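Appendix B. Chain record.
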Amino acid sequence: MNQFTQEHLRELLVIRPQDVTEGMAAVLAVRSQKTVVLDLTSMEIAQAQRTADFVSGGVKAIDGEEHRLGEHVFLFTPAGVQVTLN
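Structure tokens predicted for this chain:
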């Protein structure tokens, strides 16, 4: 079997929301087994915090994982995805 068959393909989605409501796209993507980089650098700090909290809660509710990559950049993964940060 080819190692690049459809069942081995995974998607990494980068989301740069402009407001809190766009955070739902990140939760839905993780629920669909996609890994998401959430870049909140273009948002005001209060909005970015609300969005991060919302997405974090939604992803944890579906047994996903959260990893902080930077001050306002997060990685959200579905259950079963192993992440190693060095």
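Further analysis of this model is presented in Appendix C.
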